[in-house]
């Protein structure tokens, strides 16, 4: 926020305090208000994905939604995308680790607001949403399908006409191209999965307008929790911006042992997959002739420090997506706060990344931080 905006916010705050007692219920300082404004507005204005020519296309969105719920996208017709990404649970599921054809190694991440991501998946295996959408289709432990079967599905059956209208006859395409086009339709649908405004957003917007009487409707416990989030807890270091995530990868002190003798390499493995993928923003399947965004995959490098790092999730809608962390090891928000409150520094795996320290919050402070976190999820739940 620039200096003029800071002055305006401070002016509104002082004027509101002078005007009446209701503003006394706004606990934040001008500096805290300034920082709060960086977490909005919401929802964000996000345009079509230039790498996906059907992004924002209404017919592609409807087609993608059909595919998302269709078990015929899997090898034997037994699993759909919605099997794990349950709409009523914020497009996640309530088990610690996803269950495909076998138990998988990671928790099912929410798909809400996925269109705002920079990297995709817990380890950043993809740099775009359509590439990430095709990974579970091909994974032998998930949908276990293959490009040739999907080409046949698009040529003969209820989807043939829709596919042809969007992309041209599938008979004119290589099977790999058909696979990518299906993934692009899925991505067009997923881009529409956006959480609504919450009580935090109404508070934030009132602060921006200088409407302290309206801002005072936001519970004081949530305001105190926000102060901890911005200050003592330093949570905003990683959970930045309107989506409450910096979109990058950090070590949260969660063990990466999957079972004795086997570890989850985290970002280190994700970068290997990314750099070997033909489906990046720098590859032949992007629809963007300028290859915007390709600079990231061109310049990223794997290092030993990437072990044990996982993508920072958004906190929006988090109350509906338990359990938490990449391995689903924390069953509720109380457990998450307790984890950071007493974090064991010896369990941090990334040498040299000294971001986290035990928060040492009192019981009352824990309650306040939880009140704030829940205020990021009190919009209307996603319909099933």
TrEMBL record:
Subcellular localization(s) per the UniProt record: Periplasm
Gene3D superfamilies xrefs: Cytochrome c-like domain
SUPFAM superfamilies recorded: Cytochrome c (SSF46626)
Keywords, alphabetical: Heme, Iron, Metal-binding, Oxidoreductase, Periplasm, Signal
Signal peptide: 1-24
Domain Cytochrome c: 59-223, 220-377
Main location: periplasm
Name of the molecule in the record: C-type cytochrome
One Pfam short name: CCP_MauG
InterPro entries linked to this entry: Cyt_c-like_dom, Cyt_c-like_dom_sf, Cytochrome_c_Peroxidase/MauG, Di-haem_cyt_c_peroxidsae, MauG/Cytc_peroxidase
């Amino acid at each position: 926020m620039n200096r003029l905006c800071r002055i305006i916010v401070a002016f509104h705050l002082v004027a509101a305090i002078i005007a009446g007692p209701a503003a006394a219920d706004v606990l934040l300082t001008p500096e805290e208000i300034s920082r709060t404004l960086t977490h909005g507005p919401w929802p964000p204005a996000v345009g079509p994905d230039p790498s996906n020519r059907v992004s924002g296309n209404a017919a592609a969105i409807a087609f993608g939604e059909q595919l998302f719920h269709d078990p015929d996208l899997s090898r034997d017709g037994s699993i759909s995308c919605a099997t794990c990404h349950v709409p009523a649970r914020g497009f996640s599921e309530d088990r610690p680790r996803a269950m495909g054809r076998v138990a998988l190694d990671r928790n099912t991440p929410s798909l809400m607001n996925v269109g705002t991501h920079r990297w995709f998946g817990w380890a950043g295996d993809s740099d775009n949403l359509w590439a990430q959408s095709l990974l579970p289709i091909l994974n032998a432990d998930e949908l276990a399908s293959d490009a040739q079967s999907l080409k046949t599905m698009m040529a003969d059956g209820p989807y043939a006409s829709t596919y042809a209208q969007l992309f041209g006859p599938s008979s004119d395409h290589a099977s790999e191209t058909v696979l990518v086009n299906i993934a692009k339709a899925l991505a067009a649908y997923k881009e529409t999965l956006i959480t609504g405004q919450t009580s935090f957003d109404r508070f934030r917007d009132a602060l921006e307008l200088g409407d302290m009487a309206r801002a005072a409707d936001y519970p004081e416990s949530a305001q105190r929790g926000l102060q901890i989030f911005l200050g003592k807890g330093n949570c905003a270091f990683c959970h930045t911006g309107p989506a409450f995530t910096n979109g990058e990868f950090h070590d949260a002190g969660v063990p990466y042992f999957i079972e004795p003798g086997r570890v989850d390499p985290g970002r280190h493995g994700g970068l290997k997959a990314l750099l070997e993928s033909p489906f990046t923003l720098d590859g032949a399947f992007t629809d963007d002739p300028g290859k915007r965004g390709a600079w990231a995959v061109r310049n990223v490098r794997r290092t030993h420090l990437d072990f044990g790092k996982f993508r920072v999730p958004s906190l929006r809608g988090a109350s509906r997506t338990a359990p938490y962390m990449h391995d689903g090891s924390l069953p509720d928000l109380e457990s998450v706060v307790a984890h950071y409150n007493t974090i064991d520094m010896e369990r941090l795996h990334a040498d040299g990344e000294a971001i986290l320290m035990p928060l040492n919050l009192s019981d009352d402070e824990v309650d306040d931080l939880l009140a704030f976190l829940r205020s990021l999820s009190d919009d209307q739940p996603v319909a099933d």
